[in-house]
């Protein structure tokens, strides 16, 4: 007998029909002798609906009241799911975050879980109950309701698994696992049996929306075994997110290829090559609360250099305006140019640590297709390039093939 935490996302509980399906799955696990704690999201579309209501009243909704409002979505789901299970004859109890006592900090709309009091849940499990907990929510030390940021139910699931020392945290969603890349772009993409936490963290930060990045961080920190599975498929082992030392790890050099069109590129031309320039350019950008991703500064020539960086696409205009009006005159740069028709393509894999020539293979593959690389950045287990957005899909396909990720025919 094992204790398992299961988390079901919004599409998995999107209708009464689907809630009934989920209930059958939960019941099956319990009947085979496991103790089950379930964390659920709001029914699909519900959180967005509530956010829209709030915005009809306040352009920037009051953060505390917004949490009181959006946390109701999950409360609906826990009650409905519990009713179905009770109707099926299972002893079941639902809890909101406050009732469990999921203690968070006071950062409304993006709170972090600090502690979970698992005593009630434990007592219920021992008495044979299935325990259903509202995802996405908690309360601060004064009892104010807080929420954990979009996608936060994943983090609730992982945090419960950590607190209860569960054998595994299963995240049920509308895909049957983590893929080498998006199958809509590369039909040959295949499901990974395993992936490491570090790789998953990179993929999540590169735009993969499968798991909330904080949940992966949390699972890595507390050594929770996480598995991504489909709530629609009858069977399947999904993708296990695990540790590098795990013996069952696959041994591909590259695990996945990520891509996104979220960024825009800006270049400050003809800036004096002297100490303090990077700070004079990026200081005001940071002060305006604009995130910078890739940065390139060329070697100086005749005392001048060019300085490029990327920002989120929806901050592009604002950043350009600020640079032109404030920074350019301030540092005496020749011009500020930029564009948002770019895409970022990244290869991710812990194998990069032990193999050489990965970057050159990536660059050669792109060169052979005549794809120009505009910027490059690397981490220990990731190489990202910026290319013209019209070549994004082609780049993903050729890299997928070059790194032997295509499914065997
Ligand atoms: N219902 C919340 C959201 O839509 C939390 C979640 O689904 O994980 O973001
Ligand atoms: Mg989600």
What features would you describe in this structure?
This protein has 409 residues and is of the alpha/beta class. The protein has a domain at 3-174: 3-Layer(aba) Sandwich (Carbamate kinase). It contains 13 helices and 20 strands. The protein has helices at 16-31, 46-57, 63-70, 72-87, 97-100, 119-126, 153-164, 197-205, 213-222, 277-287, 316-331, 358-368, 392-402, and strands spanning 3-8, 35-40, 92-95, 102-104, 113-116, 130-134, 137-139, 145-147, 168-173, 194-196, 226-230, 239-242, 256-260, 263-272, 292-297, 304-312, 335-339, 342-348, 375-379, 382-388. The strands form 5 sheets. It has an 8-stranded mixed sheet, with helices on both faces. A 4-stranded antiparallel sheet has the order 13-18-20-19, sandwiched between helices. Helix 8 runs antiparallel to helix 9. The chain starts with a strand and ends in a 7-residue tail after the last helix. The mean pLDDT is 94. The structure holds aspartic acid and magnesium ion.
Search tags:
single chain; 409 residues; alpha/beta; Carbamate kinase; eight-stranded mixed beta sheet; four-stranded antiparallel beta sheet; 20 strands; 26% strand; binds aspartic acid; binds magnesium ion
The rounded distance between the terminal residues' Cα atoms is 39 Å
* Adjacency order of strands in the biggest sheet: 3-6-2-1-9-11-12-10
**Percent strand:** 25-35%
Present as ligands are: aspartic acid, magnesium ion
pLDDT below 50 for ≥5 consecutive residues: which ranges? none
